[in-house]
Structure formats: structure tokens, C-alpha cells
Amino acid sequence: MALRMWASSTANALKLSSSASKSHLLPAFSISRCFSSVLEGLKYANSHEWVKHEGSVATIGISDHAQDHLGEVVFVELPEEKSSVSKGKNFGAVESVKATSEIISPISGEVIEVNTKLADSPGLINSSPYEEGWMIKVKPSNPAELESLMGPKEYTKFCEEEDAAH
């Protein structure tokens, strides 16, 4: 948080903003981009979940952008193995010091594994959202649903536009 405040005050002092700059000498950029990572090889939902599809398994978690906006994660509720998830439907919740947010499944399928480490260490979502902080692994029932998700460039643009609107 202190780093974000420093970056914001520095950007203001340098007269930089996320919108188009009035000066042609200063490029426009997004402060949020400096702090959130978007990985190649993943697909992203507009509800800020990511999917890594490898063979017959899709790993799902929440994006770095999402965890950054949530703040410190203190509790995670996830489905049971062998349960089903449906695209666009809630499959769990993430509770942070700021709020509780539903986790929306970006694809449909059967849950084949749940990250049990999150029960004791929910902060893994903050410290490692794409690696140790994954949530569930799913056997997709309709792999074509992956095509409706955003790639890294589209998701980055989506986040920048969403942040600019707030």
C-alpha cells in the first residue's frame, strides 16, 4: 500500500496520468500496470479469474489484478472434489480484510483437485496468485468455452479501462 501511495504521489508530481497526457513529451501509461502482472499462456475472464489449460486439465485461480484490489486475503471457500462447476456461476468465495467476493467459474466441468493449502494459507492468493495460489483444477466439459475468454493483451486492456472508469 505504501508503494502504491508513493507511486501515485510521484506520478502526480511528474504530472503523469493513466489518461492521454496533454504534453506530447510524456507518454501515457497506467500506474496499475506497474503493479499487476498478466501472464502469457493463460486465459482471463472479465470477472478476473484465470485459466491455464494443459491437456485435459484446466487450473483456475484469481488474477493478480483481482487479488490486488481485494487486499489481504484471510479466508477462501472452495468446492469439493468431484463437484461440478458451471461457466458464469459462483463456485466459491474469497474473503479479504476489505470484502467478501464470489469466485465465478470461467468454464464448466468437474472439479478434480482443490488447493487444500489455501485453507491454512489463504495469503498464497496474494503472494503467488498464478502459482501456489491456484484454487481448483477442473476437467472441462466444454473446452470450446476457453475460446470466449480473453488473452493477456485483451485482459490488460480490460483492466486498464476498468480502473480508469473507477
Automatic annotation (TrEMBL):
<comment type="similarity">
    <text>Belongs to the GcvH family.</text>
</comment>
<dbReference type="InterPro" id="IPR000089">
    <property type="entry name" value="Biotin_lipoyl"/>
</dbReference>
<feature type="modified residue" description="N6-lipoyllysine">
    <location>
        <position position="98"/>
    </location>
</feature>
<dbReference type="InterPro" id="IPR011053">
    <property type="entry name" value="Single_hybrid_motif"/>
</dbReference>
<dbReference type="GO" id="GO:0019464">
    <property type="term" value="P:glycine decarboxylation via glycine cleavage system"/>
</dbReference>
<keyword id="KW-0450">Lipoyl</keyword>
<keyword id="KW-0809">Transit peptide</keyword>
<dbReference type="InterPro" id="IPR033753">
    <property type="entry name" value="GCV_H/Fam206"/>
</dbReference>
<feature type="domain" description="Lipoyl-binding">
    <location>
        <begin position="57"/>
        <end position="139"/>
    </location>
</feature>
<protein>
    <recommendedName>
        <fullName>Glycine cleavage system H protein</fullName>
    </recommendedName>
</protein>
<comment type="function">
    <text>The glycine decarboxylase (GDC) or glycine cleavage system catalyzes the degradation of glycine. The H protein shuttles the methylamine group of glycine from the P protein to the T protein.</text>
</comment>
<dbReference type="GO" id="GO:0005739">
    <property type="term" value="C:mitochondrion"/>
</dbReference>
<dbReference type="InterPro" id="IPR002930">
    <property type="entry name" value="GCV_H"/>
</dbReference>
<keyword id="KW-0496">Mitochondrion</keyword>
<dbReference type="Pfam" id="PF01597">
    <property type="entry name" value="GCV_H"/>
</dbReference>
<dbReference type="InterPro" id="IPR017453">
    <property type="entry name" value="GCV_H_sub"/>
</dbReference>
<dbReference type="GO" id="GO:0005960">
    <property type="term" value="C:glycine cleavage complex"/>
</dbReference>
<comment type="subunit">
    <text>The glycine cleavage system is composed of four proteins: P, T, L and H.</text>
</comment>
